[in-house]
Specification:
Distance between the termini: 132 Å
Radius of gyration: 52 Å
Largest sheet: 6 strands, antiparallel, barrel
Number of strands: 6
Length: about 170
């Protein structure tokens, strides 16, 4: 053999040497330590690949539940619709309660005719047209129960309202 020591040569180098010598078949040494080294390398790569896959499996994000994509059931839709309607009614109720609180002090009742009047300015009240001839004096009652005297100031059979001049008890 032309090559003295084949131990330090790689397989590729041995194939080249065999072809250069004209033998055609590559020279593969029957060295047991090279075989063990190759097996260790393959096992190390396999263990490393398994470790990488395991770490990737544990670190991957969890599947998100598609709550946004799910359609609500008809009963849930009806419940949500009722809740929205109730919320709208509650806000409307709160609005009307605040308006009633604001006008509470400006409303007057006319017990003799069963009508209402609204305080207009410091000494006037507006009411719908009084039925029949206007009386000389009227007794009005505030929302808090206080009595107020008033006399018709401006009104007539063809006017839809009557203006009352408050004579006592209005603050």
């Amino acid at each position: 053999m032309l090559f003295g020591n084949l131990r330090g040569m790689s397989k590729r180098a041995m194939r080249r040497a065999a072809r250069a010598e004209g033998r055609g078949a590559p020279l593969i040494p029957s060295n047991r330590s090279d075989h063990v080294h190759g097996v260790r390398y393959a096992v190390t790569l396999s263990i490393l690949a398994i470790a990488i896959l395991a770490v990737g499996f544990y670190l991957k994000p969890a599947k998100e539940t598609a709550l946004a994509e799910q359609q609500p059931s008809p009963s849930e839709t009806q419940r949500l619709r009722r809740r929205a309607q109730r919320s709208g009614l509650e806000s409307m109720s709160d609005y009307f309660a605040s308006i009633a609180e604001e006008v509470h002090g400006t409303l007057l009742s006319i017990p003799a005719t069963g009508q209402s009047a609204v305080v207009w300015g410091d000494s006037l009240a507006m009411a719908s047209a009084l039925s029949g001839p206007p009386p000389a004096a009227l007794k009005l009652v505030t929302a808090s129960g206080e009595s107020v005297s008033a006399t018709p100031f401006l009104g007539g059979p063809n006017l839809p309202m009557t203006t009352l001049k408050l004579t006592s008890g209005v603050s």
